[in-house]
Amino acid sequence: MFSQVLLMQLAIAAGVAVLATGLFLAPLSDQLDDQAMRRALAIAQTTAARPRLADEVKDTPPLADGPVQRQAEQIRRATHAEYIVVMDWRGVRWSHPTRSEVGRTVSTDPGQALAGKEVMQIDSGTLGRTARGKVPLRDSDGEIVGAVSVGIAYDSVRARLIHAIPGLFAYAGGALAVGALAAWLISRRVQRQTRDLAFSDISGLLAEREAMLHGIREGVVALDRAGRVRLLNDEAQRLLGIGDEVVGRSPEEALGEGRTADVLTGRVTGTDLLTVRGQRVLVANRMPTDDGGAVATLRDRTELEQLGRELDSTRGLIDALRAQDHEHANRMHTLLGLLELEMYDDAVEFVGEVVGDHRATAEQVTEKIEDPLIAALLVGKATVAAERGVALWVSDRTRLPDRLVDPGGLVTILGNLVDNALDAAAGSPHARVEVELRTEGRTAVLRVRDTGPGIPVEHRELIFTEGWSTKKPPAHRERGIGLSLVRRLAERQGGSATVGEAGGGGAEFTVVLPDVLAEPGPEPALTASQAAGAATEEES
Fold it and tell me: Are residues 351 and 468 both part of a single domain?
């Protein structure tokens, strides 16, 4: 490829030099001819203006040593003209460089000059090819008595042109040498940048790159040295929810401010960085390029994260079942001992207390929370909390009707907050987690308090960042996504998620969710049986 580029550039430089030389020589020849003809015309005008020349043509015969011949030869030698011919109105020469021609008729037509016109031309005569100038010869009264013809040898003009050609070629050769040097330097630079690949190889690589770029199931975003998006493949457009219109913009302009833009621009560094875009959990890696830009890759971990959360839920359920099994075994052993001791009344009372405790816990939740998913979640979490030695308490201010628009979203938010609270409170004295869930119009306000160590002020915003966690991650997935998802879900609904200090120590998470409740429907009409029953009650 290097040799091909060099040869092409040399050919272009040589062609330009030849063309420039030809374009210069063509007008130069015409200019030299024009200068020679004008010079001949000027000499003829000067000769015709000599005093007494017209009178001598009228008064003296055409002699080889006459006064007209002497004046003409004097002027010819002074001006280095090829010839100066003075003629009368008949075209008979009164002067000529060759004396034998004096008295003879001129060989070219003097009609235009004798008619009063000045003539410039290149023509052939007895002295060869010359640049000529002809003017009329007038007497003192202004009458034309003859003409003056001056010739400059055309060969001298051609000689000047040929003499100038070596200099022109020298300049052209210098320009060609400079062009060749520039072509060599450019070719070397192209060779280094293209790694000496042939044009066909580059074309093949580009085709392969396009196929791989848009065929892989991993998002690729390329940035230039100014930090603007230079390229993104189909998967990156799908994961980020953007299109080709963002090419040429910065990540902040394309995506808005946030962790995803910070990762792409390099403000957040590291490997396998977690970020959330919409409902997707992405793993991003960024690598700088030699030209000052960077290439970022994005992998979709949404499904993996969902599987991890399902695994966490399954483990929580297993822990709850294990706790219930352990507790059930202890109670069965106690009941067996009471029966073996024939303490039947005590056994009946013990069974009643156990059933009452479970019923009280479930009733405590369901009478405050009418949505079955949220109620079931809290009942299950209460069992896990008891196994871990934490008291899970539903606040007396809790009221949640069964009109949730998106129960699954609230389950995700509440589950994450309760899990974090249990982790924080476990092991602390008088470990306790309190859940408060109430509504104000169609807005739900969720508060989760714990008796753990609390969140330092400087970390209260950082904990909502994707990938940030104070706990060791489990084997199947990374931590640092739960609280980020909580805030993301809240902000997507126009709400907010904050953390502060709970009364008596610990942390208090507050989530505000506007428009989570559906509008209350009309009261259902009573059926005939219901109406009859109501009438019976009124009569009684």
Answer: yes
- Can you tell me the distance from the alpha carbon of 88 to that of 145, in angstroms, rounded to the nearest whole number? 6
The answer to whether position 310 is within a domain reads: no
| CATH value at residue 354 | 3.30.565.10
Q: How far is CA 312 from CA 256, 289, 326, 495, in A?
A: 32, 40, 21, 26
Which 8-state DSSP code applies to residue 76? Answer: H
Count: domains in the chain = 3
Q: How far is it, in rounded angstroms, from Cα 444 to Cα 403?
A: 11
Distance set, CA 397 to CA 245, 410, 446 (Å):
50, 18, 11
Domain-embedded: residue 294:
yes
- Between CA 138 and CA 192 the distance in angstroms is 79
Give me the residue label for tokens 């405590």: 364
Distance CA 44, CA 164 (A): 28
Q: At what angle do helices 2-48 and 67-79 cross, to 10 degrees?
A: 150
Asked whether residue 533 is assigned to any structural domain, the reply reads no
Identify whether residues 15 and 130 lie together within a single domain.
yes
Q: Domain residues for 132? A: 2-160
Give the tokens for residue 21. 């030389």
Phi, psi at 291, each rounded to 5°: -85, 10
Do 105 and 250 sit in the same domain of this protein? no
C-alpha–C-alpha distance, residues 62 and 360, integer Å: 154
Q: Rounded to whole angstroms, what are the CA distances from 235 to 64, 174, 462?
A: 104, 55, 29
The lowest-confidence range among 202-206, 368-372, 471-475, 484-488 is 471-475
Tracing tokens 């009684």 back to the chain, one arrives at 540
- pTM of structure: 0.45
Q: Report which residue type is found at 9.
A: Q
Taking only the tens place, the pLDDT of each residue in 434-466 is 999 998 888 999 999 999 888 888 888 888 876
Give yes or no: residues 294 and 354 share one domain.
no
432: its two tokens:
């306790």
**Which stretches does DSSP call E strand in 139-255?**
144-153, 219-223, 229-232
- Tell me: the pLDDT tens digits for 33-69? 788 888 899 999 998 988 888 888 888 888 888 889 9
Does 107 share its domain with 8?
Answer: yes
Is 331 a member of any domain?
no
